[in-house]
Amino acid sequence: MLAGLDCISGTIGSRRLDHATEMLTDAAGEFGAETAEEFAEFLKAAVSDEDRQELLARALTIAQDTAMRDKRRALGRVVAQAARDIGTKVDMELIYLRVLDDLDEPHIRLLRLMTTKPPHQDAVNRQMEAVGRSPVRQWHPSDLGQADPGISDVVWSLLPALDRHGLISGGHEVVTRAGREPEYTVTPYGEWFLTMMAEPE
Asked: Residue 102 and residue 108: Cα distance in Å, rounded?
């Protein structure tokens, strides 16, 4: 048992260190640090006051514990922005960290799905696109479950977290094929949230 625990501790500890290192490397890259001197400048900026020190500590903790590469990439971007920003913007970045920490892979998977055009709106979207207007992206829980069967059983438990953090909006009920259901759309904040996780071009 002790040997097994040592093995588990070593494996998990190594993985957590790798995740933290990767996030910090991402942050330095976003900051624009390419040389050892620029990296030292980045680190100095990242710990220049108590707020930034708290943000960096939280980001490192979240990065160590998440298996999501996209999440670690977003954390790196937040740390880089905090190192560059002045004033109260760091407070907003701390809030963003809390949102990241609260969401898991299924939440992000659902949010990404909701940025696409729902199949039940195909006819409406063809008309919208014909006149040069943006497509309709109003989703119902039953349609989300059909579009991604892998999360169909947990859609109802995922939506409240996205709504609570302002990543989606709606909730007013409409009549659908499945009965009366709430209707949701991704907010501009939700769209921006996903861009923070995107791979660099």
From this structure: 11
**Which of 158, 57, 64 shows the shortest CA–CA distance to 105?**
158
Q: Looking at the domain that runs over 106-195, which CATH code has it been given?
A: 1.10.10
Put simply, whether the predicted model's pTM sits higher than 0.90 gets the answer no
Q: How does pLDDT run across 126-155, given as a tens digit for each residue?
A: 655 655 666 567 888 888 988 999 999 999
How distant, in Å, are the alpha carbons of 9, 31, 108, 153 from that of 150?
Answer: 32, 37, 13, 8
The token duo for 8 is 């588990």
Between CA 20 and CA 60 the distance in angstroms is 6
Cβ contact 119:142 at 8 Å:
no
Closest C-alpha to 27, from 63, 54, 68, 65: 63
Residues in the chain: 201
Residues 6+ apart with CB under 8 A from 114: 137, 139, 144, 168, 184, 185, 186, 190
- The count of other CB atoms within 10 Å of the CB of residue 126 is 10
* Residues in contact with 187: Cβ distance below 8 Å, sequence separation at least 6, in sequence order: 166, 167, 168, 169
DSSP 48: S
Which of the two residues, 60 and 133, has the higher pLDDT score? 60
Provide the residue ranges of all domains of the chain, joining segments of one domain with +: 2-102, 106-195
